[in-house]
Every structure is written in structure tokens, then in C-alpha cells.
């Protein structure tokens, strides 16, 4: 490895089919779009999936297995919230057919079955789990975990799959502050993973990059068509890419709050998924969960019994 080497792309060099999957629901799959476009340019086969917050019972997509639905640009769905369908429609408007595979928000056991069904259908050999934000790195004893239920469910599932390689990529340093995440604890986790050789560095998303331009276009296209629920995370990242800094707002959803748009927000942070999963203190307790409610209950039970919970620490700079 040298300064001309990207550890992330070195890990992906021998992949034949990469599944880029949103870990935490919502717009998380959008965070993987720059990587999606770059891998396609490199000749890789790439598919997109997302743990969905969409009410899939209202979507007329193709049900592939329990808890797994394929949608595309022609798929009817809820008017006010359907980011996966709108993303596929954006591709369609560009003359491309790119389906999005939607996982129902559920427990680890049924989500693993849905991932297995998708692997049987597509034949992917590598998964990149993408997180809009950085709270997937919280191991469980921090003062704030953010919104761990979906992230750690996805992490537990992908960790259990027999694959050539498994990676985690985060985008949006700082956006989890409003969910109580202490970013000193995030950086501490990065350091711990680095000590294990599991930290794969950062990659800046810059405006001149064609992959970044397409990502910005997709985010703006979908958010304009979802005015009641645009993505705070995605719009914050786009704003950071554009060079804004500080308390800059792109949606009325953030009015009344103070944002910290910053250059670190527009960087990919990449990690080995297996090492990250091993650091989570409660992941094994989720393996047999059947519902998202059960996941929440077990995380709460862990928090109520684990001691000590590490207090907030300001970044000393």
C-alpha cells in the first residue's frame, strides 16, 4: 500500500458483483451512489438495495421473497414518501433501468432470509453496507447511539453471510449530532479499527468528480419530489460538497435547529465489516430477533444493564 493506493478500491478490485445496501433505512442507499457509479465505470456489476422506511404494503412492486421487494421507475407507491421508487425513476429518466431492492424493516432472522433470497437471485459476491451518518460505529457503551436499530440489524445480517468480502462505508460526519452521537466516540472507534487494520481510510467527494455530480443530481431530483420529507442527511452532504460551512439549511425540516455543515461531512469513511461487527457489544444478542420492536427492546435491555456508559466528550480542538 502507498499514497497512490485506495484501500477501499483495493478491497473491491477483485469483486465481480457488488451489492451496495443502505444500512439504516430512509435515504441511506443514496450515500452509496458515488461508489455505485465509480464501480460501474470500472466494469463491475453493481446492484442497489435499501432497508426501507417506505410503507411497502402500499407499493405495487415485485415481491421476490418474504420481506423483499423489487421496485423500478414504473412502480406505483406512496405519494409522499417513496425514495427507492423515485431514485429508480431518476435512472429511468436518464434512459437506464436500475431496480432498487427494498428490505422490510424487521428483525435480524427474517432480514437475513431476505438477503439470502436476494443473493440467490443476483449472485453478488461482495456487500458494501452504506450508512448516511456515522452512528453504525457506535459499539453500545457510548452516551448516545444515534438510531442503531436498523444499522446494527443490517450489520448483523451481512456479517453472517458467506461472501467474498464485506465492507462498511459511512458518509455524513457530524449529521448524527442531533441524534445524540458524540463524534469523539466515533473517532475513538475509527482509531480502534485502525489498530486492527480494519480502517480503510477516507475518500473525499469533490464537485468535479462525475460520480459526485450524478449523486447530487439524484438527491436533488428525489428531494424535490418529496417536499414533505426530503432527506436531511443527503441534503446536508450535498451542501458540504458545494463548499458551504456552518449553519446552512436546505430544507424547512431543519428550521429551529443549528447545523454544522463541514468538509468532513462529504467524505467516505471505509471499514472492514467483520471487524466492525466484532466491536459491537450487543450484536450477538440480536441474532434471533424476529421484529424491529424486538431489536429495540434488546438494545434497551442491554443499555439498562451495561455499565459504565461512557459520558460525552468534546473533541479537544
TrEMBL record:
InterPro entries: DUF1152
Top-level division of the source organism's lineage: Bacteria
Pfam families reported in the protein's UniProt record: DUF1152
Protein name listed in UniProt: DUF1152 domain-containing protein
Source species: Pyxidicoccus fallax
